[in-house]
Write a structure and sequence with these properties.
The chain is α/β, with parallel strands linked by helices. The protein is about 40% helix and about 15% strand. The protein contains twelve helices and nine strands. The longest helix has 15 residues.
């Protein structure tokens, strides 16, 4: 059974871009990152052979898993009988989660495939009304970028857009040798805790547009990187436009967006 499982994992990696966690200690440590407050359900994304799932099932909370690979689903159904009714054989990025959760809050956790990890994050941001907590494993470089603070070289679009709605914590690093197959890079586990006030006092789509435009030319001042917004001379005279994007925290970006919105 172990040989078949490993063989399947390698095959699944080729199609899904996923590295399967094999270290039980690390799996339990990831499962313990969730605080389990203000929700009754957890959704694990990409459980594979269930190395993380088994520790989630020991907790006093209802665990669901979503898995696109049919062989993994068959394995989970055969080996985790109590979980079987809550195995969702769907693509997380395309599936309407309210078919399961019906507008109720839930947490997200997982060892995320590197190739879709940022897409998972953006879907979480879209559904933040229902997701008070999120934790999981990304490529270390991506995890650090999400959690970076202003002034850091890694601070960028992912940092600002995530931290507008969530408190982001980089928790620990995971080496390649605890995966099958081992990735060529280290992984990082982070936790996102939704802010008490997670709505923006400005147009959300416009906020995203301003942040993305600012960091596309991150070495230039905002006066130059935001030229396409046709700013008035009066607004461009504001001291903030002499700064580079990595110098602005989230609140400054919100204020910047408001000032551009109100520019006549």
């Amino acid at each position: 059974m172990a040989y078949k499982s490993n063989q399947h994992q390698v095959k699944a990696k080729k199609f899904l871009g996923q590295h399967f966690l094999t270290d039980e200690t690390v799996a339990q440590k990831i499962a313990d990152t969730l605080r389990l407050k203000n929700y009754k359900n957890i959704l694990e994304i990409g459980p594979g052979m269930g190395v993380l799932t088994k520790y989630l099932l020991k907790k006093d909370i209802t665990t669901y898993v979503i898995e696109i690979d049919s062989e993994s689903v068959e394995y989970l159904q055969a080996n985790y009988l109590n979980l079987a009714p809550r195995i969702i054989e769907k693509d997380f990025l395309k599936f309407n989660l309210n078919e399961v959760f019906n507008k109720q809050p839930f947490a997200i956790i997982g060892n995320f495939p590197y190739n879709i990890s940022t897409q998972i994050l953006f879907k979480t941001l879209e559904m933040r009304d229902q997701i008070p907590e999120f934790s999981g494993m990304f490529q270390k470089e991506v995890a650090m970028r999400i959690c970076a603070k202003e002034g850091s070289k890694t601070y960028g679009i992912l940092s600002v857009l995530t931290q507008a709605f969530y408190e982001a914590e980089y928790l620990f690093t995971v080496p390649p040798n605890v995966f099958n197959p081992p990735p060529k890079v280290e992984s990082g586990v982070l936790r996102l805790t939704r802010k008490e006030n997670y709505s923006l006092p400005c147009d959300e789509k416009f906020f995203f547009k301003v942040v993305k435009a600012a960091f596309q030319l991150r070495r230039k001042t905002l006066r130059n990187s935001l030229k396409t917004f046709n700013l008035s001379d009066n607004l461009k005279a504001n001291i903030i436009f002499g700064k580079r994007p990595e110098q602005l925290d989230v609140q400054a970006f919100i204020a910047l967006t408001q000032s551009i919105e109100n520019d006549a």
